[in-house]
Amino acid sequence: MRALRILLIVVVILGGLFVIADRVAVNFAEDEAADRLKTTENLSATPDVSIKGFPFLTQVAGGSLDDIEVGIQDYEAAAGNGGQKIRIDDLKADMQGVEFSGDYSSATATSATGTATIAYDELLKTAKSEPTQVAPGVTANVVGLSDGGNGKIKVTVEATVLGTKLPEPVSVLSSVTVVDGEVRVKADGLPKFGGVDIAESRVRAITDFQQKIDGLPGGIQLDKVQAAPNGVEITVKGSNVRLAG
Q: Pfam families of this UniProt entry (predicted)?
């Protein structure tokens, strides 16, 4: 009995030491991965990296990790030609099946899914914010974007007719979709500007717009989009996503 008790104590101690060593190793790996990701994606701040699953050391021995969660607070994504940028807030990605090179200098996920937000003030930069002529004597421009409820964007337009600004801006509910890597905003109906009859194509040149978003981390792509209280919520996905290196 005494020998069995000693054996059990030794097993418990060794198990505890293994858990401690495993947690120390995973914390070190998370810090290293975060630093590499910051450098690879040229981030202004160090991202959050969380390696899931236990034990970590046996996953490393197998050459792959089951699940890694990455969080980037503010990401400057390319917005089409001309070097423009658009800020992506609270980007969170779940990387599955992460395999790394023998020297741990690079890591690639088999698949990835995630979410992020584009604030309305960022998306507004894409709209026609400068007065544009839509008919003889009539100019209009978008002055605000906000949540219209039920997944719609409320687009607020200011108009001037014959040199007189309309006393109240007009607004229209718009649908938002993702097409070929673009966030597209299209009015469900057309606003009226002081009762003036204006061609639909000219009105839509103001109310409808699109924003190209390129260069998301690791090559992930836009998947879905929906209007929300604080901005446009997007979901992203990808395969063979580069985490570092």
A: LmeA
Residues 6+ apart with CB under 8 A from 198: 134, 135, 138
**Helix H or strand E segment including 29:** helix 2-40
CA distance 12 to 6: 10
Three-state DSSP class for residue 145: strand
The answer to whether 174 touches 187, Cβ cutoff 8 Å, is yes
Helix (H) or strand (E) holding 132: strand 132-135
Name the pLDDT band for 175 (thresholds 50, 70, 90). Answer: very high
Q: Is the pLDDT of residue 56 over 80?
A: no
Count Cβ atoms below 10 Å from residue 166 Cβ, excluding itself: 16
Query: What are the b/e assignments for 6-19, b being 16+ CB within 10 Å?
Result: eeeeeeeeeeeeee
Cβ–Cβ under 8 Å, residues 29 and 65: no
Distance from C-alpha of 15 to C-alpha of 8, rounded to nearest angstrom: 10
In degrees, rounded to 5, the angle at the alpha carbon of residue 240 between the alpha carbons of residues 237 and 244 is 100
As a whole number of angstroms, the distance between CA 242 and CA 239 comes to 9
Section 147-166 average pLDDT: 89
By C-alpha distance, which of 102, 100, 36 is closest to 70? 36
Claim: this prediction has a pTM higher than 0.85: no
- Identify residue 55 by its one-letter amino acid code: P
% of the chain at pLDDT higher than 90: 19
169 prior amide bond cis, ω within 30: no
Secondary element (H or E) of residue 160 = strand 152-161
Number of Cβ within 10 Å of residue 189's Cβ equals 10
Over its C-alpha atoms, the chain yields an Rg (Å, rounded) of 26
